[in-house]
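A student in our group prepared the protein record below, which I am reviewing. This is what I was given:
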Amino acid sequence: MKWEDYYDRFWDWAESTQISRISTLTDFTSSSEVAEIANEFFDEKNSTRLVKRAMQNGIRFTPAEIIELGGCLTEEVFNEAIRSCRGQFTAEQYEELEGLCFDEDLLETVAKAGGIRREIDDPPFEPEIVLAQPARKGPGFFATLLGLASNADSRRTHPGRCTGDCANCPAHYGYRYGRWYYGHHHSHGCEFGGNDCNGKP
C-alpha cells in the first residue's frame, strides 16, 4: 500500500485497521507525515513499527521531526533515527534532544557534527586557598612591664583634672554626654574635662 493512500485514509479507519496496514506500506514520500501519524498511536510499539518501516524504505527525519518523535519510540529506533538524521541540530534543538536521548556517545557525536559545545558537568570543586598571614609579635614581656609602669607613674603624677596639656595627658577613658572618650584625642565630656580646659571632671 502506498503511503499517500494510507495517510489520506488513516483518519477514517478504525485503530485496528490503522495498525494492520503498517506492514503493507511502501513508497513513503513525507517524513513529516510519518512523524505526525506516529504521534497519533497511543502504543509505543505501533509508532515504532511505523517509523522503523519508514526508515527501511529510505525515510530520514529532520532534527525537528526527531524531537517530535522522542516520546513515542523505543530507545533503539529513536537512536537509529538520530544517527540517520537529515541535517544538523541547532543548539536549541540539541538542548531538547539531551532530555530525550540517553546515549552519551550518540549525543557527543551529534554535538560534534553541529559544532555545539556541551555543558556536561560542573567543573570540579576547588577549595579556596587562604594564605595564612604571619602572626604579628606583640611587645615582649619586659616592654609590657615597662609600659604598665610608665602608665602607673603618669597616673600617679596626674592631678586628676584637666591641666590643658592634652598632648601629654595619660591614657584614660570616660563616658560623658552619651559618648565614650579614650586616649589623647579629647573632646568636651572627657573625664578630665576635655579640651575646653575648664578643669571639671
In short: The chain has two domains: 3-114, 161-201. The chain is about 45% helix and 5% strand. The mean pLDDT is 80. Residues 3-114 form one domain.
